Each structure stands twice: as structure tokens, then as C-alpha cells.
Amino acid sequence: MTHQIIYSSESATPMQMEDLEEILEHARRSNAQKGVTGALVYVDGVFLQILEGEAETVQSLMAAIGRDVRHETVTVLKQGEIPAPVFNDWKMAYVSATAEQVAQWVGLSGTTAVPDILDDLRSDPMKVTQVAESILSLLVPTSDRLPNSPA
Ligand SMILES: Cc1cc2nc3c(=O)[nH]c(=O)nc-3n(C[C@H](O)[C@H](O)[C@H](O)COP(=O)(O)O)c2cc1C
User: Under a CB-based contact definition with an 8 Å cutoff, are residues 8 and 48 in contact?
Assistant: First the structure.
């Protein structure tokens, strides 16, 4: 079994591309050593991150991330066991999204403010799963997902 955690947080200061690159570079190197995979989304000052791996490893990483001063209001939206890692091709994929896109992932029309979207996610774990699936579908080329596609 694989432990999966999905959390949201707010960046302490607006992130520049180089700040994100620094986080991702460290995360990918460190996650490769720990057998952790996942994806990070940054949208309007808000992070959404999916972490997967061995339960103890992911939980202690989550604790370290929670202590990181680069972000605040770290809120676990969902965690639990899944049969196998879904983001296993990515040591930490990065997705830059707009609030409109994230609202679409959650099935909210007309709502584009990220804090409203987060309120919705906190109250509905099913929507959190939807978000993870939407992120994954952006990463996986469509042809790879077709059933019976030639190797
Ligand atoms: C938004 C965000 C996402 C992060 N994601 C990861 C991650 O996936 N893996 C990781 O090892 N560190 C990640 N970090 C860094 C950790 O918070 C922390 O700095 C790091 O685990 C400390 O590692 P060290 O003890 O090896 O210095 C992230 C930090 C932020 C702000």
C-alpha cells in the first residue's frame, strides 16, 4: 500500500519562478532518495501538493513541510492508503494553473477565487480526489491513457 497526502498552504511571500525552481530541485533530489512521488501546483499564492510513498516517510516529510517558513496555513485536505502510487513517474511534477482551471477541476462554475475553492475542498474529500485526477490528466499524454494502445 502507498500512503497519499494532499494538502494546501499559502505562500508566505509571492513566489517567483526561481523560488519554485529551488523548492522543486531540492524536492526532486530528496524525494528520489526517499521513494516519494507527487505533484505540486502553485496558483495565486496557494500551494496544492500531493505526496505519495511509504506511510512513515510521507508523514515525516509532511511534518517537515509543515514547519517550512516559506508557507503558512498548511492544511491536510485528505490522506489515506491507495493501492499504488499514481504519480509514480514524477519525483515532484509541477503544474502552474489558473484559479479558473482549479475551479473547473473542483466542478465549481463562476467561482474563481482560490480561497473559496479551498473552502469547498476542505468540506468535500471527493473533490480533493477530483483535483488529484485533474492534475494527473494534465501530466499524462492522452494517448498513454487509451485502452489497448500499442506499446
Ligand atoms: C511548497 C513546498 C513543497 C515542498 N515539497 C517538498 C518535497 O516534496 N520533498 C522534500 O523533500 N521537501 C519539500 N519541501 C521542503 C521541505 O519543506 C523542507 O525544507 C525539507 O524537507 C527539509 O529537508 P532537509 O531536512 O533535507 O533540509 C517543500 C517545501 C515547500 C515550501
Answer: yes
Q: Is residue 148 part of a domain?
A: no
What is the CATH classification number for the domain harbouring 21?
3.30.70.100
Say yes or no: CB of residue 68 within 6 Å of ligand 1.
Answer: yes
Single pTM value for the model: 0.92
- Cβ contact 36:52 at 8 Å: yes
Q: Is the CB of 30 under 6 A from ligand 1?
A: yes
Ligand 1 and 92: CB distance under 6 A: yes
Cα torsion through 9, 45, 94, 21, rounded to 10: -110
How does pLDDT run across 38-72, given as a tens digit for each residue? 999 999 999 999 999 999 999 999 999 999 999 99
Residue 104 is part of which domain span? 2-141
